Amino acid sequence: MTNPLSKIDFAEYQGIARLLHHLLYQYPQAQLITELKENQVAETWPEFAGRDGNRVGREALVHYLQNWDDTQFLELQLDYGQLFFGPGEPKAIPYGSVYLGEEQLLNDRSTLALMDFYQAHDVSLALTVRDPVDHIGLFFSVLDASLGRLAEEPDNQALKRFIQVLLQQHLLTWSGRCLELAAEHAQTEFYFAIALLAQDFLQQLTNDFELVPMSVRLFR
Fold first, then answer.
1. pLDDT at residue 130 in the model
2. Residue whose C-alpha is closest to residue 125's, from 106, 111, 108, 139
């Protein structure tokens, strides 16, 4: 049987993870959005398995970037804020523990379990602010580094197992709900598109790494 991982361009996957990290973890930067437009990122985004979310997300991103100019920057910043940061309660809170814990707290048991997992695998995060490690944008940072290593070490079974556990036990349990809320409440085509494309990318990783989704109760 052919291993689906043998056909993957892990360098391409790393680039997607890195971009999603920057777009989901911090407020948008006008220069980055301009670079996405100039480099035709929307037009060259991989179709993967041709799922509807991918198609709709790519179409929305193409339309947004084709019409992008700096006059839209404030609107984009406000959209990121209301989705992921505040003021007030964000519409798509980006922290896993809020979805996985009954009391919907930051730094709850699922966060501590992730911290233990990272410590056991010598994963360190370069945080500029004190932030819970289960921010969805930080997961894409870890995937960026891990997929980059896998591009150089395609036979590293321990690394493949690390990615499998990271996805199956710590991210995929709640990320779908977070990105669903982001797509639902996005007020710009840009974040609507990014939410759909991030979810589609995670679905592709689920397929590629042959993961069986864990059934968990979500509280949001």
1. 84
2. 139
Between CA 76 and CA 135 the distance in angstroms is: 20
Q: How does pLDDT run across 63-106, given as a tens digit for each residue?
A: 999 999 999 999 999 999 999 999 899 999 999 999 999 999 99
Q: Which burial class, exposed, middle or buried, applies to 122 when counting CB atoms under 10 A from its CB (0-12, 13-18, 19+)?
A: exposed
Question: Any idea what DSSP says for residue 128?
Answer: S
How many other β-carbons are positioned within 10 Å of the β-carbon of residue 125?
A: 13
Give the global pTM. 0.97
Dihedral angle sign, alpha carbons of residues 72, 81, 94, 144: positive
Cβ atoms 1, 131 nearer than 8 A: no
The DSSP string of 172-219 is: TTTHHHHHHHHHHH-SSHHHHHHHHHHHHHHHHHHHHTT---------
DSSP-based helix, strand, coil % in the chain, nearest 5:
65, 0, 35
Q: Are 84 and 24 in contact (CB under 8 A)?
A: yes
Q: What is the structure's pLDDT at 129? A: 79
CA distance 220 to 99: 5
